[in-house]
Structures are given as C-alpha cells and as structure tokens.
Design a protein that fits this description.
The structure holds two protein chains of two kinds.
Chain A (H helix, E strand, L loop, with lengths): L8 E6 L5 H10 L3 E7 L3 H10 L5 E2 L2 H8 L3 E4 L6 H10 L3 E4 L7 H13 L4 E3 L7 H11 L6 E9 L27 H14 L4 E10 L11 E10 L2 E10 L6 E8 L3 E5 L5 E4 L5 H29 L7 H15 L7 H19 L2
Parallel strand pairs in A: 1-2, 1-4, 2-3, 4-5, 5-6, 7-10
Antiparallel strand pairs in A: 7-11, 8-9, 9-10, 11-12, 12-13
Helix pairs in contact in A: 4-5, 5-10, 7-10
Chain B lengths: L1 E4 L7 H10 L3 E6 L9 H4 L4 E5 L8 H5 L4 E4 L8 H22 L3 E5 L15 E2 L14 H18 L4 E7 L1 E3 L10 E4 L2 E5 L7 E3 H16 L4 H4 L3 E4 L7 H9 L8 E3 L1 H19 L11 H8 L3 E2 L2 H7 L7 H9 L4 H9 L1
Parallel strand pairs in B: 1-2, 1-4, 2-3, 4-5, 5-7, 6-14, 7-12, 8-11, 10-13
Antiparallel strand pairs in B: 9-10
Classes of the chains: A alpha/beta, B alpha/beta.
C-alpha cells in the first residue's frame, strides 16, 4: 500500500538504455509503484538493470514479461521506431503505457495509438517532462497571475553540440536510430518544443507556419542539424507569434524559453535554471526598468548558488520527469485523467507535422 | 595461431597486434566501420593482418570475423562518458563479442580486465598486492569505470565456466606509453586545479609494449594444448619489474616533456578530506551529491594507497619478463620511431 492508502501499481520497463535511469530511479523510490520487471533484448542489460534498481525480475521478451510479471503500467523506453508495436502490445492487454518521446513519427500514428488505448480502456501517456520542471511551473504561475499580461509571443531556443565528436548522434560507426525519424536527430527534441509551445501559448492555433530545416554540417548521417521556425496564429487573447530555434553551432548550450505578453515578459533557461520576470514594478514608469534590473539581477545571482547546489545533488534538467511520473501514477491510482492528456499529445504531434510540412512545401 | 583482437587500433591494441605478428601469428583486427586503421599500416604489410569491420554494439558480421580464429583477445573498452556510455561500450560490447565467439565455435578467450576491480580498502597500506587481493564484492555504488569492468568480469567468468571453454583474465596495472606518460596515479583534476597526490607510493605501472608482450604470451598459452589447463581460469596481474615512486617517475617524465602544473597534496590529507566530504554527503544528502572521482575515498585508495605490487605469477605462468625497463620505455615513448613498425620488423 502507498502512503495514500492506495495499492502500489505493478510497474515494468521495456528498454534498459540511458533514459531508463531516470524512470527506474523514480520507480525504485516511489511508494506508488512496485517494480515487477525490466525487459531488454540484451539479457545482460535487463539483468544488471534489475540488480541495480531492485526489480523483481528481468526479461528479454515483452510478451513473456506481460504474462508473468502482470504489470499495471509499462514504461516504453526503446528507440522511437519500436514505440508503436510495443505500446500496442501493452495496451491490447489492458496495461497503461507511459511512452518516451517522440511517441510516434507522425500525428496520424499517434492518433491510432491513442485510439487503441481508448478502445481498451487504458491510458497512453507521452513523456512531456519539461512541462513539469520547477521553472516552467513557476513561469506558468507568473502568466496565470497576470504579471506579464496577455501572452502574445513564445520563443523557444535550444542549442546543443549534436555534431561534436563524442556526441551520441555523431557516431558514423553506429548511427543512432533517431536519424531515421522524419526530423532526423531534431526529432529527439522537437516534441519538447511542441508541447512547451502549445502549453505556454495557451493552446494557440497556428494558421501560418514557416520552417526552415537545414543540414549545415552536410554529409549523409544527419538529415537536419538546424531548425528555424515561425508560427503565426491566435490564442484566446488575440494574435500569437511563436519562434522555434534549434542550433548545433552556437554556444552556450541552452534551452531558453521566453514568454512575452502585453504587460511584460518572463524567461528561463531549462539547462541553467533561473526565472527572469520583467513587468510593472512599484515606482511607476520611470523606476520600473531599474527595479526590474535590481530584482532580476539579485535573482540571477541567487540562481548561480542554487544551481551549483543542484548540480552537486544531480538535480538536472530532467528533474521534471519525477513529478510527471508521480502525477501520472497518482492519476492512475485514483482513476483520474493523467496530467498529459490525449489531446495534448496529439496537438504536439500535429505541430511537428506542420513544421515538417512547411519544409516540404518550401 | 590466428588471433582475433578487439580494440586493435587503440593505445594498447596496436602494440598487441604488432607483437602477435612479430611472434609469427596471424591477426584478425576488429576495426570500427568508419575508422581508419592507419596505426597498423606496418603490420598490414606483413600480409598476416586482416580486418573485421564492425562495432561491438552490434553482432552484425562479428561471428564471421571470429570464425577460424584460435583465440579471441578482448581489449576494447570505453573509458569515458557517463555510466550508460561505458555500460554500452564495455559490458554490452563484451556480451555481443562473447555471443559471437560462441556462435563461431571459438573456445579460447584472453580477457582484459583492470586493477580498478580490486577493493583497495580491504587491506592496509604497505601490504603485498598480488592476484589474491580481494575484489570489490558489490559493483553498485562504485565509480562507473570499476562498476562496468566488474560486470564485464562476470561475463568473462561465465564464458570461461562453459563446457570446453578456456579463459585467462589479464589485469594490467596503469599502462603508460607514448602520449600517455602523465598518468592518473600521479594525481588528477579537481575542478580547474591539477593535484599531485602523494609522492612515495610506487604505483603499479606497466609500459604499453610490455603489456602487449604479456597479452600475446597469454594468447599463446591458452591455445597451447600442453598449457591450456594450467592457465584456464587464472587471473594474472601485469606490472613491470621497475616500479619508481610517484616522485621519481614524475621527475623522469618532467625531464622529457611538458607536464601540467599542479599543486601537491599529501595522500593522508586528501584521504581525510575525501572521508569528511563522504560523511557529509551520506549524513545530509543521502549520498546523492556527485563528487569528482578524485574526491571519493574509494578512488583515493585505488589510485594512491601504497602497496607492494608483485608480478611473479605473470612470469611463472606466462614466461613473461618486461622487455623494456623504465629508461628504455620512456625513450621509446618520446622518440619519433614508428613502434608498430619497429616491433613487426623483429619478425621480418
């Protein structure tokens, strides 16, 4: 039984690669779950993961695990091209599925999987972990409080050295499976862009989408290594503009999110967290910019110390995953709707489709 | 003898290839698909070197490459990156290699392990250190390199225990050589600062070409029907005869090349500081704080605690004697000589 008095859910994991560490850390420590199995094609990988994370059993065959371990929830953490059939296997057996992003290469395939889940009366939830990061939750509170007025612009920018030597995406000897996705390597990040844009824009609709996908570094391995996209549409408060940018050639590494509204703006960097809020301050129009500088400067300095402590305690950019999983498990236990809804999953996949279609129609 | 060698273009591998060819053997060198084996150019000219193009992360083509060999000599390992990079490169790579070795019907394995698997906290400083020294009993919670190598050792042992198979496990000490003279047993980085930790310990070092000799001898021993049962299942440590103190070695290297400027810290002081940090971490942070490896008590013991290292077993079992003393090893390391070519020419 969990601390809430509800029975722990029987959890299992498919795929014991790098991302499984974050999921297994949660499953080992959460009272909401009981880790009944880990499955991986490699018996060594599943066996050692089971030892490291105190799982009850390890498997190399998904059907066998579903039959013998009888999980209530399965985490699908394999390469994206395998998500569809693995999730379907679980859903058809009446098991909830939490799937790593990107759940599907296209929105039509995402819709098909969500339909399978609905048909069998279980939930299918895509990992939208950054929505649950402290800074994004704080930023949403600022927006909800009206501090920056009505939201009219969101700018999301990520810079990562995906082509540098040693990058898991740059290995010519063993190409990462993500290269086969429609957006290539950028498909590994694009889901984050899409759900954050949708959430922070207030679920805007995008009537005009311009996207330039480039392969600046050339060669055959990378389909794209750069994205520059503009979105123009509407949200509940009026016209909306969005900018999405991915670069592998600029420094520093960052994942910046800026929300601009009719009364000010709020900004954060999810890799090096801080929250800057520029808005009306006591002191009137003359003193507001100075007060903003002083307040934000102080907060930035404090963030430096806080981030040092968090780095030491390994509270990294992926920390939102634990809250995402905890909220999702709580919803499963209580028979409530999970915190990432089918509509949100579909909307994120549709925005990715729009971005790729914009390139195709250029 | 025909020997299949992984990690063949690496720091140690290229010298093992050269030594095996110099001893008259045939070599199948595993090389990653997009890598250039130019380090082996001189060995290639002998006509006794062929390549198996592949990556240990996949079994594709591996069994075909191994088929027909008498022995597999496994050197490849990942020494950098996070746990999963090392796990994929070292442990899953070994799993794939051994599955392919079984498929190819090859029964002999020279398994390369490391001194990092020993439990340096188990015995007092100054005691003798040989193959009977205790090994870490639980890999969990150790640094990533030791943890993944311990899992790798388990795979080696499982292979060796199978009916008809034979396995010899070679544990080289700290291997030094060209471009790698300044080694981690002298000190390390602590944030932006380079530290020299201790001066009087005599680290278990071995010159890369001496290590290569030992590995080639191990392959010969396990393939030889008369000696196979004697070496099967044995663990053999490789350290050179001449083990200078940290201070002596550093002085010799500093005379030959530019070395990083560093701050000296006595080992007991560093150990006490690391123990204090470890206690605070456990008491207040449930052990979750990520401390640089050089600030971990286990690591300080593993790298700087003084022991008296022995190499009797390598000499007795393999007939190995370090070919190059410290002076010759350092000279060869800083010379412009193509060492692979130099060794290969011994046979021609």
């Amino acid at each position: 039984m969990t601390s809430s008095g509800l029975p722990a859910l029987r959890s299992a994991v498919i795929g014991a690669g790098a991302i499984s560490l974050q999921h297994l850390d949660f499953l080992r420590s959460s009272s909401r779950s009981r880790l009944v199995g880990i499955c991986d094609l490699s018996p060594v990988s599943s066996g050692i993961a089971a030892r490291r994370f105190d799982a009850e059993d390890s498997f190399t065959d998904v059907a066998t695990m579903l039959e013998q371990a009888r999980p209530d929830v399965v985490h699908v953490l394999t390469p994206p091209n395998t998500h569809g059939f693995l999730a379907t296997m679980c859903l058809e057996r009446g098991v909830h599925v939490i799937c790593e992003k990107p759940m599907s290469p296209t929105s039509s395939e995402a819709a098909e999987l969500l339909a399978v889940a609905a048909k069998h009366g279980v939930h299918l939830v895509e990992n939208h972990n950054y929505r649950f990061n402290d800074e994004i939750l704080e930023l949403q509170k600022v927006v909800a409080a009206g501090t920056i007025g009505d939201v009219h612009e969101v700018d999301i920018r990520m810079a990562l050295p995906i082509r540098d030597e040693g990058s898991r995406f740059a290995d010519e000897n063993l190409p990462n499976p993500i290269h086969d996705m429609p957006a290539g390597v950028i498909h590994d990040f694009i889901t984050h862009f899409a759900y954050l844009m949708n959430t922070l824009s207030g679920e805007a609709t995008y009537e005009r989408v311009a996207a330039v996908w480039s392969n600046h570094g050339g060669g055959d391995l990378f389909r794209f290594d750069d994205l520059d996209a503009l979105l123009v549409g509407h949200n509940a408060t009026g016209p909306f503009h969005g900018r999405l940018r991915f670069s592998c050639s600029t420094k520093p590494d960052l994942f910046s999110v800026v929300v601009r509204g009719s009364g000010g703006q709020a900004a954060t960097d999810l890799f090096h967290p801080f929250l800057e809020v520029v808005g009306p301050r006591p002191g009137g129009e003359q003193l507001t910019p100075i007060v903003n500088h002083i307040v934000n400067g102080t907060k930035l300095a404090r963030s430096g110390f806080k981030n040092f402590g968090q780095k030491l305690l390994q509270h990294g950019p992926y920390h939102g995953l634990a809250k995402f999983l905890d909220d999702t498990y709580a919803a499963f236990q209580n028979g409530q709707a999970p915190p990432v809804s089918p509509a949100q999953i579909l909307a994120a996949a549709q925005l990715v489709d729009q971005l790729l279609e914009a390139e195709a129609s250029r | 003898m025909k020997v299949f060698i992984t990690g063949s273009t690496g720091f140690v591998g290229r010298h093992v290839v050269a030594e095996a060819i110099a001893r008259g053997h045939e070599v199948v060198a595993m090389v990653r698909p997009a890598s250039s084996p130019k380090a082996l150019a001189a060995a290639e000219q002998t006509g006794r070197l062929s390549y198996c193009r592949g990556d240990l992360a996949s079994r594709a083509g591996l069994a075909e490459g191994i088929a027909g060999c008498d022995v597999v000599l496994h050197l490849a390992a990942v020494k950098g990156g996070d746990f999963f990079s090392r796990f994929a490169g070292t442990v899953l790579g070994t799993e794939n290699l051994l599955l392919a070795t079984r498929e190819a019907g090859v029964k002999n394995l020279v398994a390369v392990s490391t001194f990092s698997v020993y439990d340096y906290g188990a015995r007092k400083a100054g005691t003798e250190f040989d193959e009977t020294f205790p090994v870490i009993s639980d890999p969990r919670g150790r640094d990533e390199y030791a943890e993944t190598k311990l899992y790798q050792d388990e795979l080696y042992e499982a292979f060796g225990a199978e009916d008809g198979n034979a396995m010899i496990m070679i544990r080289p000490g700290m291997i030094y050589g060209r471009d790698q003279l300044w080694h981690p047993l002298l000190g390390g980085e602590f944030g932006p600062i380079n530290l020299r930790i201790g001066a009087k310990a005599r680290p278990p070092i071995t010159y890369v070409e001496n290590t290569a000799d030992a590995l080639a001898l191990a392959a010969e021993a396990i393939v030889d029907p008369a000696r196979r049962s004697q070496v099967d299942g044995q663990v053999v440590n490789i350290v050179d005869d001449e083990l200078p103190t940290q201070a002596e070695y550093a002085k010799r290297v500093q005379a030959l090349e530019e070395t990083p400027s560093s701050i000296f810290v006595p080992r007991p002081l560093m150990r006490a500081a690391a123990s204090a940090v470890d206690a605070v971490n456990k008491q207040f942070f449930d052990g979750r704080a990520k401390v640089p490896s050089i600030g971990m008590p286990d690591q300080i013991d593993a790298r700087f605690k003084p022991f008296v290292y022995r190499n009797d077993k390598a000499k007795r079992l393999l007939g190995w004697t370090p070919r190059h003393d410290l002076t010759a090893a350092l000279q060869r390391s800083v010379s412009g000589v193509d060492l692979v070519s130099d060794v290969v020419q011994r046979s021609t």
